[in-house]
Amino acid sequence: MKHGLITWDKAELPPAAFDSRLSRVRELLAARGLSALVVYSDVWRSNQGRYFSNFMPYWNRALLVIAAEGAPSLLCALSPRVYPWIRSITNIDEIRPSPNLPQQLLAMCTEKDWKKIGVLDLGAMPQDLYAPLAKGLDSIADIPWNAVRSAPDEAELSMYRRGATVAREVLEQEIAGTSGGIDHDFVGRLEQRLRLAGAEDLVVLLTNGQTAPKPPAGITLDKGFSVTLAFEYRGHWIKVSRTVAPPEVLTSLKSLFRYSIEGKPLGDPAAPLYLENLSGAYPWESCGAAELTAGSLFAAHVETQVDDRRYFYGDMCIRSPSGAELL
Questions:
Q1: Contact 183, 216 (CB under 8 A)
Q2: Pick from 49, 150, 227, 232: CA 20 to 30 A from residue 280's CA?
Q3: Do residue 35 and residue 162 come from a single domain?
Q4: CB under 8 Å to 32, separation ≥6 — which residues?
Q5: H-run or E-run covering 160
Q6: pLDDT of residue 83
Q7: pTM of this prediction?
């Protein structure tokens, strides 16, 4: 369940951004002879639904329905008492109470005489939803994510850059002087500052260098600890790693990071790094360099080991047509 306050600042993320994204979907629907595109959404797989509508559930599942004409509709099992809130933060007008999502979607298709619809990333739709739809519809087309979002638009990039700036500044300010403190206290300070800055979700992992970063466990953070922060800013996931390392180690780590994303092809085994796609269906997912196409937003992390201690460093990047670069 999400814990942060979900709002929509239209000066920060203008309605025109959603209008443009919906226009691309409708062009695709017209080209493929489809009546609507269905986008599955839940608390962990909300990136795609939010990209088109700014809707993100605190819990439960939903289907966003983008018709060839008109505003998007939402089928969800949430209580009607939250519908005014949903309308206030999204471009959605019609919300249909849907304890049974496939049944409600099939009823909508019958009502509107839709014979052929598309589902975004059909193979990732939960089986209990797909099975009754497959039985009840004449045709379901699989629409891949890159068919409707081939590259980030300026509004999306602006949100990612703003979130990355917040994450970097808060983490680097709070990490200074933290050695010797308890990890829970450090994580609490991070959460307080990031929630006030707009965090809707937050995952903090730490290590004293004997393991990969892990959830806080009441341990004392010693000199040389590392922290990885995953931070959701208005529906845009950011992930960075920092360390309290000796100056020479930190300089080496930063050089390794720059070389890993700028000085060689991604995935070069001579300087291995850990990659996570941040602009897919899920908040973040491990990936290989070949899966990152132009426009992919991703996190890259490097590691070095000195005197049996592991140090970690990572940041937000984008795969541009000319290669990978820091966002």
A1: yes
A2: 227
A3: no
A4: 118, 141
A5: helix 154-175
A6: 92
A7: 0.90
